[in-house]
Amino acid sequence: MLGTNSPMSAAPSLNKAIGYDPIRDFIALCRIGSFTQMLLVNPDIPVKSMQELVAYAKANPGKLSFASVSASSVVAGETLKRDAGIDRCTCRTAAHHPRCRMR
């Protein structure tokens, strides 16, 4: 099986039952690549750094939205929310929540 971390780490955390145990049922042979996570911000939001984004989010609770294209991005967004202590809605795509708009 070739894939991303989603079926091995995100799926067990995000779903009650997945039908397999990623630790018991599989072994990793090797790493064949890596990828980059990017955080993109609407230019209308007055921030130029991660520190400024966190400060803005704390000063404007519930006003920011988050769109993701993968389970990895959802986990990254939830980790940022938890670690930074910020409030924002999480949505898979812009269509899933009225506050989540891609411009």
Biggest sheet character: 2 strands, parallel
Which structural class do the helices and strands define?
mainly alpha
Major β-sheet strand ordering: 1-2
Total beta strand runs = 2
User: Could you tell me how far the N terminus lies from the C terminus, measured between alpha carbons in angstroms?
Assistant: 37 Å
Sketch the topology as an H/E string, one letter per element.
HHEHE
Strand content range: 5-15%
Helical percent range?
A: 25-40%
Using the alpha-carbon principal axes, give the shape.
Answer: elongated
Report on the structure:
This protein is mainly α and 103 residues long. The protein is built from three helices and two strands; from the N terminus they run ααβαβ. It has helices at 6-14, 50-59, 71-84, and strands spanning 65-67, 89-91. Strands 1-2 form a two-stranded parallel ribbon. The chain is elongated.
Task: Record keyword descriptors for this entry.
elongated, two-stranded parallel sheet, mainly alpha
Give the structure's gist in a few sentences.
The protein contains 3 helices and 2 strands, in the order ααβαβ.
Please write out the topology.
Elements lengths: L5 H9 L35 H10 L5 E3 L3 H14 L4 E3 L12
